[in-house]
Amino acid sequence: MSETKWSIKKLIGLYDEILSHPHKHEIKRELRDEDDLFLLLCVSELLGIPNPVSYYTLEIYPVIVERFHEWHLRMGMEKSPLEGIRCC
């Protein structure tokens, strides 16, 4: 009985892999773009854009600093372009 469940799980995983494999890069790029947009929304006040939810984004600031550091390195900037976030 348990072997049947395992094989069904394996088949579902294989099916999912077959469907997503050709679009893996597109899916990764879309997820990265969404993360970049979320990051922009979270640090928008540093750019002069009013953020109505800044009170709530303050709680996730420690996580944002790490993501922001990865982002500006990926964009080719050695140092942080914003003075409000000192990640380097």
UniProtKB/TrEMBL annotation:
Pfam families: DUF7990
Taxonomy, superkingdom: Bacteria
Protein name: DNA helicase
